[in-house]
TrEMBL record:
Keywords: RNA-binding, Transcription, Transcription antitermination, Transcription regulation
A Pfam family annotated for this UniProt entry: NusB
Compositional bias of kind Basic and acidic residues: 1-19
This protein's name: Transcription antitermination protein NusB
SUPFAM superfamilies listed in its UniProt record: NusB-like
Region (Disordered): 1-21
Gene3D superfamilies in alphabetical order: NusB-like
GO cellular component: cytosol
PANTHER family tied to this protein: ANTITERMINATION NUSB DOMAIN-CONTAINING PROTEIN (PTHR11078:SF3), N UTILIZATION SUBSTANCE PROTEIN B-RELATED (PTHR11078)
Record-annotated NusB/RsmB/TIM44 domain positions: 26-159
Gene: nusB
The organism's place on the tree of life at top rank: Bacteria
Function according to Swiss-Prot or TrEMBL: Involved in transcription antitermination. Required for transcription of ribosomal RNA (rRNA) genes. Binds specifically to the boxA antiterminator sequence of the ribosomal RNA (rrn) operons.
Length: 171
């Protein structure tokens, strides 16, 4: 009987895990797309076309990219582009004085913008999950010290947009 319960417990986790992996892949792709737009000046429609045809779930230069939740990817990228004028001052406020957003590496700007957007607009995802996911994304590109900064900035922003969620969780 205990054995049967164990196997039943594993099934939902796999489905949730698969969805989480697709969202994680979408977050990574969104950060890469935002980075490309920031440094290369590419437009959003060109970025969507490129990522859908070449990156999302495909192999590029020998690396296999996980299938991403395309709608989630598009929401984050389009949302950051739409709300950047509002997101950047929020991020600037959360950064250490003397280190405005414009002085931060482009890849970290992309991570912070995507994370801030998701914290404000994607209430379907718990705030702590958003912060953790974007710290993981940052870890793919930068050193631990910089991921700590991403954690601190997004945690501050999360407490603004999700104060009730963070006070309930005791943190």
């Amino acid at each position: 009987m205990a054995e049967n319960k164990k196997s039943q417990d594993k099934k939902p986790a796999k489905g949730a895990d698969k969805k989480a992996n697709r969202r994680g892949a979408a977050r990574l792709a969104a950060v890469q797309a935002l980075y490309q737009m920031d440094i290369g000046g590419a437009g959003i429609n060109d970025i969507f076309a490129e990522f859908e045809s070449h990156w999302l779930g495909n192999e590029v230069e020998g690396d296999k990219y996980l299938p991403a939740e395309a709608a989630f990817f598009k929401d984050v990228v389009a949302g950051v582009v739409r709300d950047q004028g509002k997101l950047d001052p929020l991020i600037d406020e959360a950064l250490s004085k003397g280190w405005p957003l414009k002085r931060i590496d482009a890849i970290l700007r992309a991570v912070l913008r995507a994370g801030a957007y998701e914290l404000e607009h994607r209430k379907d995802v718990p705030g702590r999950v958003v912060v953790s996911e974007y710290v993981d994304v940052a870890h793919a590109f930068v050193e631990a010290e910089e991921t700590g900064m991403v954690n601190a900035v997004l945690d501050q922003i999360a407490r603004q947009f999700r104060a009730d969620e963070f006070s309930r969780a005791g943190g």
